[in-house]
Model the fold of this input.
Amino acid sequence: MSNSESSVVSSVTPEQISFFHENGFLALDPITTPDEIAWMRESYDRIFSQRAGREEGNQFDLGGTDEEGKEATLPQILNPAKYAPELNDGLYLKNAQAIARQLLNPNAGGGVAHAIFKPAGIGAPTPWHQDEAYWDPQWQYYNVSFWMPLQEATIENGCLWFVPKSHYWEILPHRSIGNDPRIHGLELAVDNAEQVTKSAVPCPLKPGGVTIHLNRTLHYSGPNKTDIARRALILGYGVANSPYPAPRNFSWNDIKMTPRQERAQSSQSK
Ligand code: NI
Done:
């Protein structure tokens, strides 16, 4: 193990585990080395500049209507390791998995899930949401997301904010951003959002640091007001889903009609 590897976070303390379960989130120092972050950043920039996954619906604008030729203000790539296989092999994954197993369950599995790019100057906010609101309502989840910036994450460039203890809440009403069903991204749709989010705390991070949050923890990130792009890689870990004990419906997903879904369908029918 090199010196730089020995200073990398590869486990969490009992105090951090307690904080996580009490508050629904946790922020950690880098889980990988500066060298690894440097090559990951190259891979990341390559697949965004190649518009990897666009045709099959795996790259799209999370925050806009995603029409061809329109500049994306919040581009996202699902399963980025499909287009940059080197992302499947890194110290960051080894450490994230070990930490996820400490936090959730010794059998928790997962890996590279998606990449969200917040362009310099024009990068849009990611509105308040609970991740579970995106998913199939018939299942009960016990999942975490690791959010890892490939440069510093600050309040000015769009670090994450969390509402402590919101992981104890049910799924609140959501809708597509701006109530436009052509938009993939969701936002909280409650009248008292300011009240609901007033205890939120920002989590600035070093490059390669992570925040970890549960599937119901309410979170947000601001616009990128800086002149440097904000790159974030999100890793999902969880235990096997079980059937949700009661019928429930996420109507906001049923009425979505995004260009991304159309591209995915036409690419499958080819
Ligand atoms: Ni989220």
Observations:
- The pocket of nickel (II) ion is lined by residues 129, 131, 219 (CB under 6 Å).
